[in-house]
Amino acid sequence: MDARDVALLERAVELAERGRRHVSPNPLVGAVVSRDGQVLGEGWHAELGGPHAEVQAIAACGEQDLTGATIHVSLEPCCHQGRTPPCTDAILAAGLARVVVASDDPSTKASGRGLGILRDEGVQVASAPADSPVGLRARRQNQPFRKHARTGLPWVMMKTATSLDGRLATHSGDSRWISSGPSRDLAHQWRAEVDAVVVGIGTALADDPQLTARVPGVARQPRRVVFDSEARLPLDGRLVASIDEAPVTLITSRAASRSATEALTASGVEVVVVSGQNEHSRVRSALAELGQRDVTSLMLEGGSHLAGAFFDAGEIDELRLFVAPLLLGGRQAPGLIGGEGVERIADAARPVELTRQAVGDDLLTIARLKEW
Ligand SMILES: NC(=O)c1ccc[n+]([C@@H]2O[C@H](COP(=O)([O-])OP(=O)(O)OC[C@H]3O[C@@H](n4cnc5c(N)ncnc54)[C@H](OP(=O)(O)O)[C@@H]3O)[C@@H](O)[C@H]2O)c1
C-alpha cells in the first residue's frame, strides 16, 4: 500500500457516506476504479436493495476496458447472494487485477471470504492496516453494521441534554427545553440516521414526545420504541396518534395486562414481551429482539432510569451529551444515568475516543465507549 492507495481509500470512505440514512441494515460502502492512479469510475451503495458500491463503480466506467485495473473499496467485497449478486463475481467479470480494501466485513458470510475468493482467482489483494487512519475511519463509519454483524444487537448511541450541574430535568420533571435550538436540530438529524429511537415509559408519560425526525430529507422515519413493563403507554398520546408516520414498538413484560396490550395492538403498536431476572437483563433481551428486526442502530433518548439499565447491561456504545449553561439543583432532580452504576472509580467506563465542540449555547461531548 502506498500513498496513492491511501488517497483512493479515503475517497472510497468519503463516497460511502452518501448512503447514510438510505442503506441500513446494510453497511455504508464506497468504491473507486482506477488505473495508474487515474480514476476511471466511482460508486457507492445508495439504497437498500440497490446495486453495491463495486458494481456502481464498475458501471460508472462505461465501455472502458477494465482489464488489469484496480478497485479501492471501503469494505471487503461481499461473496454471497443477498438482495443482489456477489460483488466478487462483478470484480472478476470486469477483469480487475487488484483489490484494495479499507476494512474487513465481520459478518459470518464474509470475514475474509470475499478476499480469499479473489486471491484464489489470481487477483492481487491488499488491506489497510486496522490501526491506520483510513482503516479506523472505515470501521468507525460502520459501527452499527459491525456490532449487529458480530453480536446480533443494535449499536446504542445515547443522546441526552443536562444542565451544568448534571440534571436531566427539574425535581418536578420539567425538561423542556434544557438544550438550545441548534442542539435540538442536530438531535433530529441523528434520529434520521438511526433505525430506532428509544425512551422509557417515564419519559413517554412526562413529555408525551413524538420521537420522529423533523428535518428535511428524511429517507425513512426511525421506529419508536418504548420500554414499558406494564403497558401504560396512553392510547391518546402523540406516539400512538402518529403511528402512520413511523412504527411504534412497546417492550413490555408478562406483568402487563392483556386488555392494555390488546388495546395497544389494536391501535397498531407492536407489542414485544421480554423476560429477564432484572432490568439490565431485560434490556439485553429487548436488544436481541430489535436486532432480529434488522434494527442495527438506535438512539437512546432517556430518561435516567432506562439509561441506568442500559449502562448496567454494558450496552451504551456511544454517548452524545449536550451540557447547557443553566443550573437546576434539587436532590430529587434526575441525573444522567441511574441504575446501579459502578462500585469503584477503577471500574468506570472510559471513552476510547472523545471529542468536544460548541453547538449553539451548549457544549457537545461525544464519547465513543466501544469499538466494533
Ligand atoms: N434532558 C433530557 O435529555 C431528557 C431526556 C429524556 C427524559 N428526560 C426527563 O427524564 C424524566 C423521565 O426519566 P425517568 O428516569 O423518570 O424515566 P424513564 O427512564 O424514561 O423510564 C423509566 C421507566 O421505564 C420502564 N422500564 C421498562 N423496562 C425497563 C428496563 N428494562 N429497565 C429500566 N426501565 C424500564 C420502567 O417502568 P415500568 O417498570 O413501569 O415499565 C421505568 O420506571 C422526565 O422528567 C423527562 O422529561 C430528560
Note the gap between the termini. 24 Å
**What does the oligomeric state look like here?**
single chain
Discrete helix count: 12
Query: Any idea what the shape is?
Result: elongated
**Helical content class:** 25-40%
Low-confidence stretches: none
Strand order of the largest sheet: 10-9-8-7-11-6-12-14-13
CATH class assignment of the largest domain: Alpha Beta
Order of helices and strands: HEEHEHEHEHHEHEHEHEHEHEHEEE
Spell out the CATH superfamily of the largest domain: Dihydrofolate Reductase, subunit A
Bound molecules: NADP nicotinamide-adenine-dinucleotide phosphate
Number of domains: 2
Largest sheet: 9 strands, mixed
Features of this protein?
372 residues, Cytidine Deaminase, domain 2, Dihydrofolate Reductase, subunit A, nine-stranded mixed beta sheet, 12 helices, binds NADP nicotinamide-adenine-dinucleotide phosphate
Task: Give a brief outline of the structure.
The chain is α/β, with parallel strands linked by helices and 372 residues long. It has twelve helices and 14 strands.
